[in-house]
Amino acid sequence: MHNPDGHDLDTCPVCGHERFCAEGLDPVFGRVGYGQCLVCTYICTPGAAEDEAFTEHLRSMDDE
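RESULT FIELD:
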């Protein structure tokens, strides 16, 4: 499938296809991509990506 924005494609967390067009990474932790899936049109905003990255960060602290 052609990626019109030219960004890297990742696996969509909703539909599981490798068609999530990541436009960037969360602004605080730089771990979770934000963008839109080219198949199911799921959209992850920078704020949602930051929230998810913060949750992952807290989980990693619990593992220590």
